[in-house]
Every structure is written in structure tokens, then in C-alpha cells.
Amino acid sequence: MPFPEPEYSLHENQFYSIPMVTEKHGVEFFVKSSNFDVRYPLGSPARAEIENSVIRDYRNLVSRYCDVELQRLQWNKNLPTPHCAKLNNLEALRKEPLIVYGDGKQTLSFQYVSDLVVQETIDPNAKIEFRPNTEDDP
């Protein structure tokens, strides 16, 4: 049984060339047809489902890029981490707690959790949620 073609792509290409932006977080995505707004009107449950998928896929993509940036920081602590910043911004914009595993005093790639400025610069009211440290994290 063949898989249906996706309704959107996070990257522009020859098939997905019409730019769209999610209503909630302004995440850009691309669709095939100018008929997209007719099939998925703003405010409809179907549009909300598509946009939630876009945001989830975008978060996963940015998270993978952030992981690579954090690994590269081990070789050169002066490298920028733009995808990690995007990920932090997205979490804060979603009004979800910023997750810290462990007590926040452990280091990862030369950065203390307390050095992050996300809460102060993006949303001073953002909650920080502490969770038990993962077993494989020293």
C-alpha cells in the first residue's frame, strides 16, 4: 500500500514551493498547492493538526541540529549554537516549562544551565521544571 504524500515540507523544493507560516509560532513551512488554505482553513481542526505537526517536526529537526552543535562545542568552545537558541526560543514561546535534568549544576559542552539567559530574555515568567537526571548522564 503506497504512502500518501505529505501535505507540507519544512524545506522549499520544486514540489513544495508555496511558503506558509504557522499561526502559533511563526514556523515557516511549504506546501504544494495554492488550494491549501481552502482545504485547511485557518482556525479549523484540520489546519491546527497540520500546524501542530509542522511545529513538532520543526522542533525535532532543530533539536537534532542542536545536538550536533553541542558535540562540536567539545572541540571548540567558541562555536555558535544558533539551533540550540532556536530550540530554547521555541520552548519558551510554547509557554511550556524549560526542562532541566538533574539539579542544573552539571556541565555539558562547557555551559552551565545557570548561564542560560533564555528565561530572562524571552519570558521572565517561564517555569523551569527539574526532572531526575538520566541514568547515562554522569
UniProtKB/TrEMBL annotation:
This is Uncharacterized protein. The lineage of its organism: Eukaryota, Viridiplantae, Streptophyta, Embryophyta, Tracheophyta.
